[in-house]
């Protein structure tokens, strides 16, 4: 296994900005930009009081990405405030997920984080009402052909993204955190019943379920261009679990939702890349509870280590493309039973017309 | 060290290996390319730009090269622009690589340098006072800029006005002036000493040719300037020359329309644009002849209002 990137060490304070040479910053800034964590790096260096130690021309890039973050935050706060107000009239209280949740809640680990869509979780029975209501407020559906509609509505954990006609903001509306056809079966009703009220007044997943969701997203996915940033999130979320009981509870929740495997990988890789503090025995406990064998586990570790990097040429090692391809197949395999998967890939390869 | 101090072979080997380090305005670029047109473009039109072979922090590392591994690429080779491992634009025919390089450099700055309020505008300076001309393509902005520069005005940029969000000062981004179609011959007739690069034909903007900025402008790449006036130019063939004062409120709106990152900067963008406009004058200029336009601009530059 390779050692952590300079960028990773700077993000978590293993390396001080004072010890990075000007020419080394070129690669750090480029990798951080490609992984969309330049704004996060800016906030962490400022928080540690290391910002002033950096070359002024590097500071400019960090500040510039902080400006981009401020725009995302402003837009997300405004959008979420109005969305929730509109849904509240119908007595629907959505749970905020991922980037938008961290940013609107002003989680310190996610200061500087940008994101492309706003993700919401609503009970499956309310989905139709939510869609109808959003239409009245200018949100339009996408993926209109029959196949895509069926793909999303029967098999997936979300409906086709809706886009606001004027502002072009994209909303992803989920009713659970994994496709309905997936190998793992998280219990959606549990996600709602243990959701909490955030400081900003919005509903959020419980701390443990946030880890579960981030882990599931990264370690069962079939695309890895955001993998590095997702692991930055996971590191940030895990650092909020202080007490041993928190880690016990994380284990229990992972077990309840049938998500021990992705959470095990999440803890393992966060620790490897970001030296996330994990109490003794936790990894062993997850490891012992897994059904996959040691050989397969080692292989998966190697594949994940290859792909969880900033998508920048300087961070891609040989074997990246193959690892990505293999995990792409694994991601699809985990999402759908074999017969459905073959049908789906056949359709996408030969029958689907190019659609936007 | 300047680009013209380097031997052709050194430029070529830097372009082909670790990258040619070159200062453009407040930024250092590292450019990689195996294409002879790119080499020639940089050698001829960036003569007085600073270069440096020592390791240093690079703001933007870019690459313009022939696109590999496509069947179409064998039949009709195309050049692609790469930044940070991404290809942000559609590749262009190989002979348009100088234009692709120039557009790519502009894009790097307009998409990432939010320490500035960035306007789509030409900037020239005389007597320590900068003139900013925000306008859409086809307004005669670049042609008028080239004409002013031929009369001794300092070129800061023909494309991007970089207004520092903290100070309101405008920073140079001195690059070759990009002239299109008919304006290429107009300037060749108007400015006999002008040095042009290779013309790129059939681009999305028609024929594009790049004009070498004066050495005296390029060497002042670190000197920012205070904005004295905004002029909104409008070229119309045969139009009588006229220069009239524009209300600040209306000028503000035109500035916002021509800004790349006004909304991104939010309150800071508002503060910056208001500050600069409150400390300068705004005019509409319509012209059909370059000498007339220059006479009008020189008149207000010598006057007391600025």
Care to describe what's here?
The complex is a heterodimer of chains A (356) and B (306). By secondary structure, chain A is of the alpha/beta class. Chain A has a single domain, classed as Beta Polymerase, domain 2 (2-Layer Sandwich), CATH 3.30.460.40. Helices cover 56% and strands 6% of the residues of chain A. In chain A, strands 3-4-5-2-1-7-6 form a 7-stranded mixed β-sheet. The model of chain A has no long low-confidence stretch (mean pLDDT 89). Chain B has 306 residues and is an alpha+beta fold. Chain B contains 11 helices and 16 strands. In chain B, strands 6, 7, 8, 9, 10, 14, 15 and 16 form an 8-stranded mixed β-sheet that branches. In chain B, strands 1-2-3-4-5 form a 5-stranded mixed β-sheet. A 3-stranded antiparallel β-sheet of chain B has the order 11-13-12, with helices on both faces. In chain B, helix 5 (141-150) packs across helix 11 and helix 8 crosses helix 10 (267-278). The radius of gyration of chain B is 19 Å and the shape is globular. The relative contact order of chain B is 0.13. Classes of the chains: A alpha/beta (356), B alpha+beta (306). At the A-B interface, helix 2 and helix 4 of A face helix 9 of B. Chain B: Keywords: Kinase, Transferase. Chain B: This is HprK-related kinase A. Chain B: InterPro entries: HprK-rel_A, P-loop_NTPase. Chain B: One of its GO terms (molecular function) is kinase activity. Chain A: This is Nucleotidyltransferase family protein.
């Amino acid at each position: 296994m390779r050692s952590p990137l300079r960028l990773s060490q700077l993000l978590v304070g293993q390396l001080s900005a004072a010890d990075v040479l000007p020419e080394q910053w070129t690669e750090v800034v480029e990798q951080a930009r490609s992984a969309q964590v330049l704004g996060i790096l800016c906030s962490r260096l400022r928080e540690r009081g290391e910002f002033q130690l950096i070359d002024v021309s590097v500071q400019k890039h960090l500040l510039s990405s902080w400006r981009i973050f401020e725009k995302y935050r402003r837009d997300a706060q405004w959008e979420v405030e109005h969305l929730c107000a509109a849904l509240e009239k119908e007595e629907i209280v959505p749970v905020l997920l991922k980037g938008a949740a961290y940013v609107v809640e002003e989680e310190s680990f996610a200061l500087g984080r940008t994101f492309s869509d706003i993700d919401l979780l609503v009970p499956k029975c309310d989905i139709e009402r939510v869609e109808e209501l959003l239409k009245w407020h200018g949100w339009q559906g996408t993926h209109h052909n029959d196949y895509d509609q069926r793909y999303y509505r029967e098999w997936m954990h979300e409906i086709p993204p809706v886009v606001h006609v004027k502002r072009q903001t994209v909303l992803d509306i989920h009713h659970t955190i994994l496709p309905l056809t997936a190998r793992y079966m998280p219990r959606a009703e549990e996600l709602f019943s243990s959701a909490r009220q955030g400081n900003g007044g919005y509903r959020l997943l419980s701390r443990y379920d946030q880890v579960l969701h981030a882990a599931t997203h990264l370690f069962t996915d079939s695309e890895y261009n955001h993998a590095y940033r997702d692991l930055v999130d996971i590191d940030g979320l895990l650092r909020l679990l202080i007490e041993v009981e928190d880690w016990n509870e994380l284990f229990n929740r992972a077990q309840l939702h049938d998500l021990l495997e992705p959470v095990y990988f999440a803890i393992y890789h966060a620790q490897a890349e970001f030296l996330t503090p994990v109490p003794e025995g936790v990894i062993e406990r997850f490891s012992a509870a897994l059904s996959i064998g040691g050989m397969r586990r080692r292989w998966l570790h190697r594949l994940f280590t290859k792909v969880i990097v900033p998508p920048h040429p300087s961070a891609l090692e040989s074997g990246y493309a193959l690892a990505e391809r293999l995990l792409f197949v694994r991601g699809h395999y985990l999402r759908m039973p074999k017969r459905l998967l073959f049908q789906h890939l056949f359709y996408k390869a030969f029958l689907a017309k190019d659609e936007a | 060290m300047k680009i013209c101090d380097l031997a052709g072979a050194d430029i070529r080997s830097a372009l082909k290996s670790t990258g040619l380090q070159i200062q453009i305005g407040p930024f250092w670029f590292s450019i990689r390319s195996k294409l002879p047109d790119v080499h020639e473009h940089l050698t001829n039109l960036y003569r007085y730009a600073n270069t440096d072979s020592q390791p240093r922090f690079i703001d933007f590392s870019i690459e313009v090269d022939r696109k590999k591994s496509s069947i179409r690429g064998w039949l009709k080779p195309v050049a692609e622009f790469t930044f940070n491992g991404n290809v942000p634009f559609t590749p262009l025919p190989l002979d348009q690589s100088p234009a692709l390089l120039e557009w790519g450099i502009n894009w790097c700055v307009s998409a990432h340098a939010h320490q500035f309020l960035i306007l789509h505008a030409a900037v020239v300076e005389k007597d320590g006072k900068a003139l900013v001309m925000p306008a859409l393509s086809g307004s005669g902005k670049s042609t008028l800029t080239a004409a002013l520069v031929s009369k001794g005005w300092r070129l800061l940029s023909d494309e991007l006005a970089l207004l520092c969000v903290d100070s309101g000062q405008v920073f140079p981004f001195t690059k070759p002036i990009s002239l299109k179609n008919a304006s290429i011959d107009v300037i060749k007739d108007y400015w006999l000493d002008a040095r042009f690069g290779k013309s790129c034909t059939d681009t999305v903007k028609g024929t594009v040719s790049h004009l070498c900025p004066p050495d005296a402008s390029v060497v002042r790449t670190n000197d920012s300037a205070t904005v004295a006036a905004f002029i909104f130019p409008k070229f119309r063939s045969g139009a009588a020359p006229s220069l009239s004062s524009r209300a600040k409120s209306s000028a503000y709106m035109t500035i916002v329309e021509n800004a790349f990152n006004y909304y991104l900067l939010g309150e800071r963008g508002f503060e910056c644009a208001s500050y600069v406009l409150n400390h300068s004058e705004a005019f509409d200029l319509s012209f059909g002849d370059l000498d007339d336009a220059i006479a009008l601009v020189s008149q207000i530059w010598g006057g007391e209002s600025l």
